[in-house]
Amino acid sequence: MSRPCYITWLQFDKAWHLIRTVSIGYVFDMPTKNLTAVLYKINDLRLEDRPVPEPKEGEVLLKMGCVGICGSDVHYLVHGRISDFIVKEPMIMGHEASGTVVKLGPNVKNLAIGDRVAIEPGVPCRKCSFCKEGKYNLCGEMIFCATPPVHGNLSQFYTHAADFCYKLPDHVSLEEGALLEPLSVGVHACRQAAVGLGSIVLVLGAGPIGLVTVLVAKAMGASKIIVIDLMQNRLDIARNCGADITYKIETSDSVEKVCKALTELIGEPPTTTIDCCGVQTTACIGIEITKPGGTYVLVGMGANEVKVPLVKTCIKEIQIKGMFRYCNDYPLALAMVAKGNVDVKQLITHTYKLEQTLEAFERAKTGSGNPIKIMIYCNQ
């Protein structure tokens, strides 16, 4: 008499992962080469083959999908440094990224081979007071992609902490996964500003971060969004992202002229100003025009020191808040994209293959063709 065959859930789970692994072809075709974009020094970016890394405990090996070029990447290329972060040794570029899991390191339980993920590029220590208080973006031991001396992920294969990889739903593309990085900056900015239903939001600057801030503010229920910038083409995109009012300024415009024009256009002062430029002029505009009792959030990083009318912030009781990167914002950013509340793909203006990385960075550096977001496909 035959006996029924029983298997445990663990056995079934292991069998399923094996089936998935074989079906996507990674068991028998693990690569030996890894084309990688490496910055050696100012204006010296090279493509070279490097070994495929091995995932350590708690890490996954990713076949990289998309990597966006950020303003910070261009800054390192042109200047070799951002503040105290200096490129002293060759550094792999890239931090706005997504990929597919091809190998699991020991003790990875939240992901499986074949999962497509968005990569949160900053991995904190998880042990300090900031991490334990839920403010891990302020962790002093943060390891952040493409921030000297830490390597980035602009390569064909890359390893990353599994708990800072976010599984993408089937209907969310790898391009959208990569764009969760800048979108999370917009989420963090709007959270700092407490944007909500009925908020009147002024966004200073319509670069990529200004545009994602507009997208998030709209999704969070802002009743009126105003955007200013020097470039009309960016203001046109801001309209598509949800801006109700746009205003083109000139470099010669005084703070008084801009504030007067904005007051006439808006009809009432903004309850919140989010400064995505961080230069002295925009800081002064923000403090001058924000409604008494309102909030001014500084996102853009300009010079270390700027002259601002601090006494006016006292008289108007304006809250001045800084913000740095993001913290616990990726899940909300992903939910916004997955639910269709924001359309980040409209920000992609130029695409390149990994082999065309030097050409892509040249476009980002010169600004030819008015790029907003340049996306590099790492395994096409």
UniProtKB/TrEMBL annotation:
Name the UniProt record assigns to this protein: Sorbitol dehydrogenase
Entry keywords, A to Z: Membrane, Metal-binding, NAD, Oxidoreductase, Transmembrane, Transmembrane helix, Zinc
Gene3D superfamilies reported in the protein's UniProt record: Medium-chain alcohol dehydrogenases, catalytic domain, NAD(P)-binding Rossmann-like Domain
Similarity comment: family membership: Belongs to the zinc-containing alcohol dehydrogenase family.
Keyword Cell membrane: no
GO biological process, one term: sorbitol catabolic process
Spans traversing the lipid bilayer: 193-217
Organism in which the protein naturally occurs: Rhynocoris fuscipes
InterPro entries tied to this protein: ADH-like_C, ADH-like_N, ADH_Zn_CS, ER, GroES-like_sf, NAD(P)-bd_dom_sf, SDH-like
Record GO terms (molecular function): L-iditol 2-dehydrogenase (NAD+) activity; zinc ion binding
Cofactor(s) the protein requires to work: Zn(2+)
Domain Enoyl reductase (ER), first and last residues per copy: 42-376
